């Protein structure tokens, strides 16, 4: 008898850990390593949200809540979906979970049967394929190109759908590329999905509020109301409200799926932290103006990073419309030699060289399913980003 679960055997630990471990090793040797791997805003949770949590503790909101979330937070989520996305949900179509990640695994575990396929556009957020495997499904990938702005085309989506396709996981703005789909681009994908009524869509809207230059965020169920019964719209407070550690995510969608997710959650984690739920209630229903201010700060950093990376020899960096990542191509450095004579054959070679040569830690593209690229998170200060990009330019100039 196997000790370990067969499903878990093919699940990789987070690929970012190798770079983080190497960066920690170099720091311990006294090197001044700059980390560009952070998947979280560097801003703090706003004070009014923290105060709401403190008040919840003082009030004694320290007990179990309903397993799928407090009625008050569900009401705030329903109001948010209506206000910001024009979507109508009833309380039994809404669930509150322990972060956005928990929403996704709940949804997959609630719906996947062995052999069901889940379509994942590449480059993807690292956890999607592994979560599909944990749930017993088969990840299938849809490629994108620099020419298409690292977005999937309707043709590529059409070609990827099979009778076994259960879900498409759709993430805009994207981690890791920052690519964001316009209303027209979403409509064109929806036209394909309308022709395949067995395909459900998980719309991962985690970066909804981090968009730039007048980009208009829209979500699938809003753009294509005829798909409403097949879309799970998921979101959370982690990125928009700088609340990654509080662990609150939520979703609205088809009642049968959401009720099954609630059943699973009731038998596994029970409710998300009662105090975090009180904080998330304040986040969603309190003042919202700081969100746009923070997005402007991210935009300034994006412009700086894209400009400086495009000046580095061999790097081509698209200008993304959202999130706080860029995903430059390093096709122009593949085949070049380091001063020590080692040929850069892959994006892992490049990330390793960057770390060893210039003490900059960034995750290689293979971890996100599309090479040769690397991901830079610009959720850090302008001063640090300027220094990091200068070092990347020096690293590229050292290759011949
Ligand atoms: N979806 C995407 C695209 C993400 O980048 C992340 C976090 O990095 C999540 C979901 C999960 O968010 P949470 O921290 O709320 O679990």
TrEMBL record:
Superkingdom, natural source: Bacteria
Annotated protein name in UniProt: Aminotransferase
Catalysis: reaction(s): L-aspartate + 2-oxoglutarate = oxaloacetate + L-glutamate
Gene3D superfamilies linked: Aspartate Aminotransferase, domain 1, Type I PLP-dependent aspartate aminotransferase-like (Major domain)
Source organism per UniProt: Iodidimonas muriae
Family note: Belongs to the class-I pyridoxal-phosphate-dependent aminotransferase family.
One MF term in the entry's GO annotations: transaminase activity
InterPro entries noted in UniProt: Aminotransferase_I/II_large, AspAT/PAT-like, NHTrfase_class1_PyrdxlP-BS, PyrdxlP-dep_Trfase, PyrdxlP-dep_Trfase_major, PyrdxlP-dep_Trfase_small
Enzyme class: transferase
UniProt keyword list: Aminotransferase, Pyridoxal phosphate, Transferase
Known EC number: 2.6.1.-
Domain Aminotransferase class I/classII large: 32-392
Names of the cofactor(s): pyridoxal 5'-phosphate
Annotated signal peptide: none
């Amino acid at each position: 008898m196997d000790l370990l679960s067969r499903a878990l055997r093919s699940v990789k630990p987070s690929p970012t850990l190798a770079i983080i471990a190497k960066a920690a090793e170099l720091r311990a040797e006294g090197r001044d390593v700059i980390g560009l791997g952070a998947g979280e805003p560097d801003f703090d949770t706003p004070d009014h949200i923290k105060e709401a949590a403190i008040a919840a503790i003082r009030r004694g909101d320290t007990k179990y809540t309903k397993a799928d979330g407090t009625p008050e937070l569900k009401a705030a989520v329903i109001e948010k979906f209506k206000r910001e996305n024009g979507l109508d949900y009833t309380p039994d179509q809404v669930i509150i979970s322990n972060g956005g990640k928990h929403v996704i695994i709940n949804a997959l575990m609630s719906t996947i049967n062995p052999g069901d396929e889940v379509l994942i556009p590449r480059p993807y957020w690292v956890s999607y394929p592994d979560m599909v495997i944990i749930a017993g499904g088969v990840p299938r990938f849809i490629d994108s190109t620099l020419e298409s702005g690292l977005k999937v085309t309707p043709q590529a989506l059409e070609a990827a759908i099979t009778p076994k396709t259960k879900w498409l996981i759709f993430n805009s703005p994207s981690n890791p590329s920052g690519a964001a789909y316009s209303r027209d681009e979403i409509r064109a994908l929806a036209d394909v999905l309308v022709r395949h009524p067995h395909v459900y869509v998980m719309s991962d809207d985690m970066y909804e509020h981090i968009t730039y230059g007048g980009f208009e965020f829209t979500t699938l169920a809003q753009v294509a109301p005829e798909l409403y019964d097949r879309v799970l719209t998921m979101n959370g407070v982690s990125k928009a409200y700088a609340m990654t550690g509080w662990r609150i995510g939520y979703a609205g969608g088809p009642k049968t799926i959401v009720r099954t997710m609630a059943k699973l959650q009731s038998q596994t984690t029970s409710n998300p932290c009662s105090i975090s739920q009180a904080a998330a209630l304040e986040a969603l229903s309190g003042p919202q103006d700081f969100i746009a201010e923070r997005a402007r700060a991210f935009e300034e950093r994006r412009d700086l990073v894209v400009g400086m990376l495009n000046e580095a020899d061999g790097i081509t960096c698209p200008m993304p419309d959202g999130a706080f990542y860029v995903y430059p191509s390093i096709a122009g450095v593949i085949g070049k030699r380091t001063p020590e004579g080692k040929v850069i054959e892959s994006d892992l070679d490049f990330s390793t060289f960057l770390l060893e040569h210039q003490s900059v830690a960034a995750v290689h593209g293979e971890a996100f399913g599309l090479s040769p690229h690397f991901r830079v998170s610009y959720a850090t200060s302008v001063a640090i980003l300027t220094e990091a990009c200068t070092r990347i330019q020096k690293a590229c100039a050292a290759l011949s």
